[in-house]
Amino acid sequence: MYKGKDRKTLPLFDELFPFGGKLDENNRWLKVAELIPWDELEDEYRQYFSDIGRPATNGRLFIGLILLKHMTGLSDREVVRSVQENIYHQAFCGYEHFVTDRSLDPSSLTKLRKRLGDTYFKEIEQKTYRLLIDRRIIKGKGLLVDATVFPENIKYPNDVGLLNDVREWLVETIKPMGKRLGKWYRTYCRTAKNIYLSFSKKKHRTKKTIQKAKRQMLQYVRRNLKQLDEVIQTLKDDGVKICQKVIEKLEVGRRIYEQQTEMYQEKKQRIDDRIVSFHRSYVRPIKRGKGGGKDTEFGPKGALSYVDGFLFLDKFEHDNYSEAGKEIVEGQIENYEKKFGKKPPSFTGDNLYGTRENRALMDKEEIRPAFKPLGRKSKTKPDRWFKKKQKERNRIEGAFGHGKVHFGLDCVKYHGEDGSKMWVRLGIMGMNLQTALARM
Description:
This protein has 440 residues and is an alpha/beta fold.
């Protein structure tokens, strides 16, 4: 059940100002609060709850906590504590009187995120951007596009470490289940652990050493998989229901074992749809295509557009794709038109976007593209407008860096495919709200 809350006007927290004082109206959190359509978002929030039952968490409080978290970089626990201590954070979250008790348990944020899903956070994003556009804070200018990878919070994968993660989970699952049956299983967990530690501590690993460690880990995983299958079958025969999460994790572990076995036996280094993280099996390796540093990143890829200093997420996938495909470019132009009610006057991207299909699309849509001319290199100087637009392209690269350094986009911490999208969407929204605040 969800009950809304009647909102009062200023003065807020009047019990703290008995002599006629008031909050500083120029405080940044009060100004950011003016940029968010709270009533619309709370109406949308209400639809996710029944008319009967225990009252749900206040929508303004939940939305305020989530936005504070992504604008400040705090954890769930820390952002709840911050609201408890900071009067302006309380005002941002809709409080009218100062409270000293804990407003919400941090675990409730996780439960509500799972309940609402990415669909609701997309609504928050769209309604907030609509308000910013209506107030002329965001103005429809030229469109800059590019793509980047948002790394997931996983350790750098290697085959032996991946198999060891599967083995550890299998052992941790077998022991309590076997205890329930009154049966002890010989998992060789200590021996396997010592082998892995010995391998991981080696500074120089030869191909022979890696293959030997991999073969040993495959043997232990095979044994533990067989043991867990036997335990689960016995429990099922006794009428015990097995948790769906255990079944799903077991299937992931089995798939990793099959992939690694195939790679070991056929001496291959690559395999289709290779799983690189046991706990986040949806993560895929994505080649950067750039020199220097690591040439592979592990996380979802986003195609983004940049308009008037604001960043927008157009496409988000865990599998690799070409951001310069005609369908994606059409989608970016369509998203621009939905936001601003007109087509972009110009379209700027790197050389990858200058395909014949995209050039034909720009001609059809009557959009001026900042693409390098086709054919042989001309002896004449490129026109000044093209050079100016290519220099402007650095702005979207700068926005990527700013988001990754200051708004957590360099390390996705929410679990699940929807969780990854929520983390990135809210991180970009937090960055855009800071930009809007600077323009007020």
